UniProtKB/TrEMBL annotation:
It is found in: Membrane. Pfam families: DUF1751 (PF08551). It comes from Vitrella brassicaformis. Its main location: membrane. This is Uncharacterized protein. The keyword Zinc does not apply. It is a multi-pass membrane protein. SMART domains: DUF1751. InterPro entries: Rhomboid-like_sf (IPR035952), TMEM115/Pdh1/Rbl19 (IPR013861).
Length: 353
């Protein structure tokens, strides 16, 4: 989908070598797990009972001896496989195409932190959604039905593409799609989810995963991703506000709602950006005064005199001898110099004793 290679490209178009520690194939392993786990899910019900998100097992778990073990790990593991192998054949390669440039750009460590954060938030959001839906409808099938989908991780990766390479062209089968940049991927992905929900190809849980995945992907990149170049956490630039994930006509409404939510969290002391903080005082305002030694004072005084001399010379030669005011020397000045040098050479040397 996106053009990627073993080396990234700078703003000037020159390739930049990627360190070896940023070529670890974590995205290959996860993409393979999506395909393999989906096959196991379609074959074995025991695999689904262990790793799919089942709200009843997440709360009550299973009894092992005298202990009751809740299956809390299925909040994360349900993101790693699909309900049908055909979906996995689409999701797995898509995850690899989106995840490979992200892993090369961020490094394997930050890439895995990003996926772990997105997976946990996706699981918690879907679990809360299913519990409230069960209380509202009193449908036991929602409480005991296994859930699994990797669309939430794909939604988070589209936001990563938007942040890391917004102006890169989106490619399909080696061909660039005209007028389609990386910055438009999150909204296009959400639009496809809306159309699929209306047509019945996408379930309500999958649409919730798409929406939550886009938001928590933006949240992690906005506040928690570590950038080695600036040695700071989060992209707090204006170009990566939440409203920039949507088209221009929708941005005022999204920005208004986002500002209200941001002010509420800011009042609680959460999710503050660097622009919200008071800038630190300059070091030089609080620096201690240093006492100069006599030698240092003399050097400083002569340095100031030299600066004044150069300023006068550059400004027009005020206060300098006449022969130094102009770059060209006259013939009279040259004759005076010759006579002075000749008189010095003809004079007898002064005896030392």
């Amino acid at each position: 989908m996106l053009q990627s290679a073993d080396s990234s490209t700078s703003l000037s178009g020159l390739p930049i070598a990627i360190p070896l520690d940023r070529r670890r194939p974590c995205c290959i392993v996860i993409a393979s797990c999506i395909v393999v786990f989906s096959l196991l899910h379609s074959i074995s019900t025991n695999f689904s009972n262990l790793f799919a998100l089942i709200p009843s097992r997440t709360i009550y778990g299973a009894t092992v001896g005298t202990l009751t073990v809740p299956f809390v790990w299925n909040i994360v593991t349900f993101n790693l496989f699909e309900t049908h192998p055909l979906k996995a054949l689409i999701t797995g390669p898509a995850f690899f195409l989106l995840g490979r440039p992200m892993e090369e750009h961020w490094g394997s460590r930050e890439f895995m932190r990003f996926l772990a954060f997105s997976g946990v938030i996706n699981g918690v959001a879907v679990f809360i959604y299913k519990v409230f839906h069960w209380y509202a409808t009193l449908s036991e099938t929602d409480f005991f039905q296994p859930l699994c989908s990797a669309c939430g991780l794909l939604a988070a990766l589209t936001v990563g593409i938007k942040q890391a390479m917004p102006m890169d062209e989106v490619r399909a089968f080696g061909q660039a799609i005209p007028h389609l940049k990386g910055r438009t991927l999150p909204f296009i992905y959400l639009t496809i989810g809306c159309i699929g929900l209306l047509l019945g190809f996408v379930t309500g849980v999958e649409f919730v995963l798409c929406s939550v995945g886009i938001f928590n992907g933006w949240l992690f990149l906005r506040h928690y991703l570590y950038f080695e170049l600036t040695q700071a956490y989060g992209d707090h630039s204006v170009d990566f506000e939440l409203a920039t994930l949507f088209p221009q006509p929708l941005r005022p409404a999204v920005a208004f709602v986002a500002s209200l939510v941001h002010q509420a969290f800011q009042a609680c002391g959460l999710f503050k950006t660097r622009r919200d903080n008071v800038p630190p005082k300059s070091y030089y305002l609080n620096a201690p005064r240093v006492t100069l030694t006599p030698e240092q004072a003399t050097v400083d005084r002569w340095r100031n005199k030299g600066k004044q001399f150069l300023d006068k010379y550059i400004s027009g030669g005020q206060g300098l001898p006449a022969r130094y005011k102009y770059p060209q020397r006259t013939a009279a000045m040259a004759e005076e110099d010759l006579e002075r040098d000749g008189s010095k050479a003809a004079a007898p040397p002064t005896p030392l004793i």
